[in-house]
Amino acid sequence: MGTLFLELATPRAGEIDVLAELPADRRVGIGVVNQKHDRVETVDEIVARGERAMKVLGPERVLLTPDCGFATFADNPVASARVAEAKLRAIGQASAVLGRR
After folding, report:
1. Cα(98)–Cα(58) distance, rounded to whole angstroms?
2. Between 20 and 30 A from 2 (CA), which of 9, 21, 24, 58?
3. pLDDT score for 76
4. What pLDDT score was predicted for residue 45?
5. Highest-confidence range of 11-15, 81-85, 88-92, 97-101, by mean pLDDT?
6. Closest CA to 33 of 84, 97, 98, 95
7. Do residues 49 and 93 touch, judged by C-beta distance below 8 A?
8. What phi, psi does 88 have (nearest 5°)?
9. d(CA 91, CA 42)
């Protein structure tokens, strides 16, 4: 089994449907927040992205992740610590919602 981590929070990433043909033993980390913007995605937005991925791949294969990392360069972070924490908190809340479905 392997895990792929993909940036999918922006339109340029394409549609998740193309991942339907991945081998069944692959989990997929789905990028659900964009680390390059200060706007914190809502839990509902993240849940919707997770639901789309779960329909294509199955819930047991989907991991919710940010696109890329939050501190690409230690001396010049992409997102402030406050924004990164808020986005990670929203991912955690969305994960809890999806786990109850």
Report:
1. 12
2. 9
3. 65
4. 97
5. 88-92
6. 84
7. no
8. -65, -35
9. 9
